C-alpha cells in the first residue's frame, strides 16, 4: 500500500478526541523543547537536508505509534500492556512535538517539497557507523515498520488478549523501523541535537522491543 493510500484513511472520531485530550500538552511541550534546543545558524539545515526529512518523517512515524497506543489503551485489560502503551504515547508524542519545533526554529515548512523518505536514500557520510546505504527504501514508499490501514483497523476491532498480541506485534515492527530510521540519520548528519534524539530513540526502542518480545511470549 502506498503512503498516499494510507493517508486517505478516514479519521476515527473516538480516537481523534482521545488523542487530542491525551497528547496535546505533550506535543506542545515537545515543540517548546525543540525550539529551545535546536541549533541556530550557521548549522541550520536546509529544507532538503537529511535532518529536515528525518524531522518530518519521524514525526509521522511517532504519531502513528501514539495512535496505536491510544487504540490498545481502550481495549486492553493487561496492566503491563497499558503501562507500556502509556509510556510510548507519552514519549513519542513529546518527541514529535520536539521535531515540529526544530522545523519551526529552522524556518522550514512542516510539509516536504519532495517525497517522504527521500533523505534516507541519499548516501551516508564518510565513515558512517551503521552502514545504511541508498537501496533500502524508495522515495514515497511507506516508512519502515509503518502499519497499514488494514492493520490499524484490525487492532481497533480486537479486544482483550487478541488486541494485546496484535499491538505488540505491530509495535515491535514499528519500533524496529524507527530504530532503522534513527540509525540512518546518524549516518547522514553531524547535527548534535538531531543525533541526541536519534541515539536516545535507538536505546529506548531497542529496550522496549526486548520487553515487548517478553510480553508477547507470555501471551502465546
Summarize the structure.
This protein has 220 residues and is mainly alpha-helical. It has 7 helices and no strands. It has one domain: Ferritin.
The percent of residues in helical segments reads 55-70%
| Total beta strand runs | 0
The Rg value, from CA coordinates, equals 17 Å
Low-confidence stretches: 1-11, 13-28, 30-36
**Main sheet makeup:** none
Mean pLDDT: 84
What's the order of the H and E elements?
HHHHHHH
Q: List the domain count as a whole number.
A: 1
Helix/strand class: mainly alpha
Query: How large is the count of helical segments?
Result: 7
CATH topology: Ferritin
- Report the β-strand fraction as a percent range: under 5%
How far from one another are the termini? 29 Å
CATH architecture term: Up-down Bundle
Q: What's the CATH C level?
A: Mainly Alpha
Overall outline: elongated
Q: Superfamily at the CATH H level?
A: Ferritin, core subunit, four-helix bundle
Please provide a written account of the structure.
By secondary structure, this protein is mainly α. The chain has one domain (13-122, 131-219): Ferritin, core subunit, four-helix bundle (Ferritin), CATH 1.20.1260.10. Helices cover 67% and strands 0% of the residues. The protein contains 7 helices and no strands. It has helices at 3-7, 13-37, 50-75, 79-106, 149-157, 160-186, 192-219. The longest helix has 28 residues, at 79-106. The protein starts with a helix and ends with a helix. Residues 1-11, 13-28 and 30-36 have low confidence and may be disordered.
